[in-house]
């Protein structure tokens, strides 16, 4: 891993000069701003049992659907389509260092954008000046889940990009994988209606894959270690698959 930090600096610079990076940031902050405004309007017109922070984090999947493809679709696909992957892999760097550097740069940018949304809560709490709605635990739990699950979603995007040399195909594949994990994974319990004799294992599987429930638990201060293990191991597994795929398709390690 001697060249990892050199590659990481290069990947961060490439992100900063890439127009899709700023498109992702603009769309993300625009969507999150409208969502936060909607939460405040809903809260002011009809007080909810949960704080605005909890309602805000329950919509985390909406920006994730377009952010992950925009941040990861170029990672390996662009290197392959432009032919630079061959030049890169003839240098002393390893495929593992290349994949991890691209993942780390995307992950740092992803976390930075989410951290910017913290200013929404600071502004709201400053103007509200009501101690009853200032609860740090939903914020800590919510952002903790965002950072944990973000590792898996970006690993899925990097893996999708390693499968093809087309950025468009990589973006569609990345979106499909993230959409499948969140939407299908959160509705597996519905399979009990078509498999009435298999309630137990379906319920156990649904408990592990329900991202929406995981977010609700984390924002309520409930840290489920099964979810932590799931996201960490799945992230490592998809990064490993991405490394294998690059090695298989480019075969220059």
Describe this structure in words.
This protein has 253 residues and is an all-alpha fold. The protein is 77% helix and 0% strand. The chain contains 13 helices and no strands. Helix 4 runs antiparallel to helix 7, helix 4 runs antiparallel to helix 10 and helix 7 runs antiparallel to helix 9. It starts with a helix and ends with a helix. The relative contact order is 0.14. The mean pLDDT is 82.
How is this fold's topology laid out?
Layout lengths: L3 H13 L2 H27 L6 H6 L3 H12 L4 H6 L1 H6 L5 H22 L1 H11 L7 H27 L4 H18 L14 H11 L1 H9 L5 H26 L3
Helix pairs in contact: 1-7, 2-4, 4-7, 4-9, 4-10, 7-9, 7-13, 9-10, 9-12, 9-13
Question: Quick recap of the structure?
Answer:
The protein is an all-alpha fold and 253 residues long.
Annotation keywords:
253 residues, mainly alpha, 13 helices, 77% helix, globular
**Total DSSP helices:** 13
Largest sheet: none
Order of helices and strands: HHHHHHHHHHHHH
Total count of strands: 0
| Share of helical residues | over 70%
Counting helices, strands and paired strands, the structural category is mainly alpha
The poorly predicted ranges are none
**What gap, in angstroms, lies between the N and C termini?**
14 Å
Principal-axes shape call: globular
Classify the beta-strand content into a percent band. Answer: under 5%
Q: What is the alpha-carbon Rg in Å?
A: 20 Å
- The average pLDDT is 82
